[in-house]
Design brief:
The chain is an alpha/beta fold. The chain is built from 11 helices and 12 strands. Strands 1, 2, 3, 4, 6, 7, 8, 9, 11 and 12 form a 10-stranded mixed beta sheet that branches. It has a two-stranded parallel ribbon with strand order 5-10. The two termini are 29 Å apart.
């Protein structure tokens, strides 16, 4: 998983904490708007001072917020949980990385306060609401020794359905392509297959249960290809461009990189959230959390500058 530089993380948290202290001393604030994906543009223009006022109110909260689901959201959840603890020390946020499908089920069955899904809800997944807290590129990864650097969407579809089985047909060295992906129910798998147009037709050589496992498998096999969250990819594997567009924060946000998906908080429509759970959601979609999300390798929907 991508690790957050501790000095940068603490610096961001320090700004949030200092803002709360200034408000306690009587500093004035203007209005701000907490954002989901549908209100990102309005929140981006909100002022930092109003966020500071909201931050100050969190110090009296207590309780536990149970979350679980997407393994791809590991780095983001770590950053958000630690950042939230700086402003709401009485609240504990738990996280169980069980996969997106399990996260949605947990919200539906009320075993989780907040489910985590790295995909959009399906039409038949009713009774819950998705709040997008970030965007994530699904990076196409190969072994560092693989000379191939770019693939088209069509080529990806051919590879993952075994219509193309040798790297030599793609400008690489002779060798049978080893297709590695996630297990059924994974948000990363669902996102990749739906974008590339290969739902239920992929032929995997290995189906693994975590993003980190996919990266490790590709790193250890010169002939392998897989997909993984941009927020989790490091230098142990090589990230391909897709249609000659690199997978980056900028290209995900402007939509030019096509293989991308949302990071969603899932909540049950029939359940009244606790004050602590609602505060955590509000924090996650605020400008205060934007730099934390960015440091975790994902793409915030809100401008940290306010």
């Amino acid at each position: 998983m991508k690790k957050i530089d501790r000095r940068s993380f603490l610096a961001v948290c320090g700004v949030v904490a200092a803002a709360g202290a200034l408000t306690a001393c009587g500093g004035s604030s203007s209005s701000s708007t907490a954002a989901s994906s549908s209100t990102a543009s309005s929140v981006a223009s909100s002022t930092a001072s109003s966020a500071a006022e909201a931050t100050n109110d969190l110090s009296s909260l207590s309780g536990t917020v149970s979350t679980g689901g997407s393994t791809s959201m590991n780095s983001v959840m770590e950053a958000l949980s630690e950042g939230f603890a700086e402003v709401a020390p009485g609240v504990t946020v738990s996280y169980d990385p069980t996969g997106s499908g399990a996260g949605i089920t947990g919200a539906l069955e009320e075993t989780l306060d907040i489910g985590l899904a790295s995909r959009a809800l399906h039409d038949d997944e009713t009774g819950v609401t998705a709040t997008t807290v970030a965007l994530d590129g699904i990076a196409m990864v190969v072994n560092n020794e693989n000379p191939v650097s770019d693939l088209s969407i069509e080529q990806l579809a051919q590879i993952f359905t075994k219509q193309v089985t040798n790297w030599a047909d793609l400008g690489g060295e002779d060798g049978e392509i080893v297709v590695i992906g996630r297990e059924a129910g994974s948000g990363t798998r669902d996102g990749f297959e739906s974008i590339v147009g290969v739902e239920d037709s992929c032929v995997y050589d290995q189906e693994l249960t975590a993003t980190g496992a996919v990266i490790s498998a590709v790193a250890s096999n010169k002939l392998a290809i897989g997909y993984a969250s941009l927020s989790a990819v490091g230098d142990t594997v090589k990230t391909l461009t897709v249609e000659n567009v690199e997978c980056s924060e900028a290209t995900v946000l402007d939509g030019t990189y096509k293989v991308q998906r949302p990071f969603n908080f899932i909540t049950n429509d029939s359940v009244q959230l606790s004050d602590a759970a609602q505060a955590f959601i509000d924090f996650a979609v605020s400008a205060d959390a934007a730099e934390l999300i960015r440091l975790a390798g994902a793409v915030p929907l809100v401008d940290a500058e306010g």
